[in-house]
Amino acid sequence: MSDIANEAASSEVKRFLDGHFTNLESLELVSDLLRDEKRTHALLEQELNTAHESTQAVFTEARGIAKKVNDEALKLVDLHSKVVGSTADESVSAWQFRDGTEIMQLISLLAAKLGTYRKLNQAKEYIDVVVDIEQTKANAAQCLSMKDSRGVLDAYSHAVDVLFKQFGTGDLAQQQYLLEHIRMVVLDIWKGAESAAASTQNEALVRLGWPGKMDMSMASTIDAFDAGFSMLASLDCINRKNKSILMRSSTNVPANKTSPLPLEHLARAVDIRMRYHFESMRSTNRVDKPEWWLSQVLGMVRNIVPFLESHVQHIYEESQLPELDARNEFLQLVQPIIQRKLTNDRSEYLKSGFVISHVARELANFERTLCEVYFFDGPSILKHFLSDSDIFAAWVEAERANATAAYMETINDPGAFDLVYDDDVLGIDDAKPSRIAEKVVLLVEDVAERYSAVPSCMQRLQLLSTAQFPIIIALVEDVEEEIDEFNRISLAFIRESGIAGSVGSSANPGQSSFITQLSQLASWYQTIWYVEEAARDWNNSVLYVDMWDAVCRRAQVLDGGMDPRDWRDDCDSWDARDRRLLDEASQQEIKNIDWIDGGIWERTIGTLEKLKQRVLELISKAINKDIVGQLRAFRKKSNWVVDDEKTGSSFDVSVELSGALPGLAQVISSLANMLPFVAFTRLMRSLSSEIDIFITERVACAHSFNVGGGSQLALDVEAIGRVLTSSAPRADLRRPNQRVLPKANECALILSCSLDGTSSSSRSNNNNDNAIPLALNEWGHAIASVSTDSQEAQQVLKKLGISHISVKEARRLIEIRVDFTDAVSD
């Protein structure tokens, strides 16, 4: 009968559980069935006590039977060992005891009683947990209605403890409905407590005047804020303490956050406010005006940071949360608001790369303000924004396309190489930019200004390679093309009617076609020089020095004989490793000191310098050829043996030279205005050397002279030297005539030297300032004689003040002095 009763009780319990607790919704009926279940619980306890007494009696009886069976078995084993052998024999395992029906019935009875007991006990524990968690939920609701924050926190803490106990013990599969119910209760208490505390905190924040300047004189409102803040901090402490169980049990309670809960709610209030500006039709939501919505964020920060520093930090330090800077943490919590704004506008950014540039610059200014004013130490929004490869690619393409279009528009203008400023605007030592040169420099500097705030060095280098270098390369190629075209035109055809013929012409007074061509060459020189000087300044600026430093350190790490100037070769294939080396390489020291003297623009400067030198050589070649051509008549003059009686006391420049001097003066004067002083000086030295050699070899040493002809030559050389020196841009920069044409002057000295110390020529009388102190008869024989050692002859010439012409040339000059040779032969 007892077995039947136990089975009936077990079946009844099972039917009750299966009938009333089949799903989550059925748990809501617990409060209504609680009274009936208590009566049922009492009956179950009575049956449980009866079953327990029966079980104890059965246990006693079973122990006696088991002991008796064990004793009889030992006796049989002893008897068997005597008859058969040792108990270690393998046949022992085949020994069969007598029929064990009675003991098996006893064991079955015990198992049935034990199973029934366990089920009844499990049901009792189940009901106890349900009753406990429901009472906790009711207490939490009551405390919330009474604004008892301490009671709410205790209820929430107790509910989490109940979850921990149930989740850590028992069969989770059998308790899934109970655990789900506990999870829901924990989450409900959490939501209610968090909502109430956050509401109290936010309402107090609004009453204090936020988002405007906050009024700290309202004590009751501040107390309310403190209560809400402290309750949120306590909830956060409970979550952090029970982080593992809350996450394992999937309660949806945010227990894995690193930021303090009360500060998150402060930031959430900011988020709500910023949505009004960021996601509405207001003007502050314009995509192309990021400074408008960023100013709203800065205004909010400006209003709330003093409150954080003076009040919130103190409350936070009284909580049990980890130590932190409330101001800095709050600023970090504001960043996702800005990132969401950037994400929402991403599609619009991709349509205009220059809007991306503008946003990047404003974000850089925003972050600079946070760092310098509020000492913010957190992740960079700008870096996160530009880490989007599509965003950055759109910016790079926009920079490239704009620079290319602006350059092509300027270079295609017929006046691209016209100088921008008048001659009197800039000094003689300043580069005078052409329109295309000024445009190129402005384009490069504008691009640099836009990306100077980019935190990634690799991205700055990519912009440099894609948007800046191609502009310089295009300019170099276009100037080279102009030079090649100029070289295809023979200089012989450049002069239409000669310099002298064009000077003072009615069509273009004072301007020849040759001067026009020189002006064109000079504009190319000025263009290249202006860009070169700008590139030298760029190379020494902080922006490019830092970039060069990163490139050198990357080359040092990669090794393999890499030259840092070759960084552009693999710029398009840079990966995450290159980004790390370029952006974080500042921790390493550059070992190769040869790299330090270089720079990002080093090769560009070298290219421009070579091109500038090429243009200068072309100008020099054109001038030298033209001037020597104009002196052709002077070279062909043969009447250097002058009859003083016929010429009288005339003291004029040779007729053959007088026609070429105005043209020579015009060319030199034009060059002085067209070119910088350094280039002009270099050209004048080359021209002076060319004329000096021309007069020495093609005039002085090529004709016969007497003292009168020598004096005429001295006069002509002085006139040429005066033209060469008088056109210098500043008087203090002019050189003496003797230094301009040193060999020609010495030739004139020898050819105009008197035979016996007295001059019969009026020309020589008027040109005796630099005359040789001795008569030609006194030293001419020593030089002319082939028996005189060359070194001795050189010493004689040196004492006479002649040091630029050779002994051979001096002998040649003495030989062509017909008055001296005639006297010797006589």
Q: Please describe the biggest sheet, giving its number of strands, its sense, and whether it closes into a barrel.
A: none
Tell me the count of domains.
4
Question: What percentage of the residues does DSSP assign to strands (E)?
Answer: under 5%
Helix content: over 70%
* Helical/strand content category: mainly alpha
Radius of gyration: 53 Å
End-to-end separation in angstroms reads 177 Å
Molecular shape = elongated
Mean pLDDT: 80
Number of strands: 0
Question: What is the overall number of helices?
Answer: 36
* Poorly predicted runs: 86-98, 491-511, 645-649, 759-768
Q: Could you characterize the architecture of this molecule?
A:
With 826 residues, this protein is mostly helical. It has 4 domains: 1-87 and 94-146, no CATH class; 258-387, no CATH class; 393-605, no CATH class; 631-825. It contains 36 helices and no strands. Helix 4 (149-168) packs parallel to helix 6, helix 9 runs antiparallel to helix 10 (326-344) and helix 19 packs parallel to helix 27. The protein is elongated. The model is unreliable at 86-98, 491-511, 645-649 and 759-768 (pLDDT under 50). InterPro entries: EXOC6PINT-1/Sec15/Tip20_C_dom2, RINT1_Tip20. One of its GO terms (cellular component) is Dsl1/NZR complex.
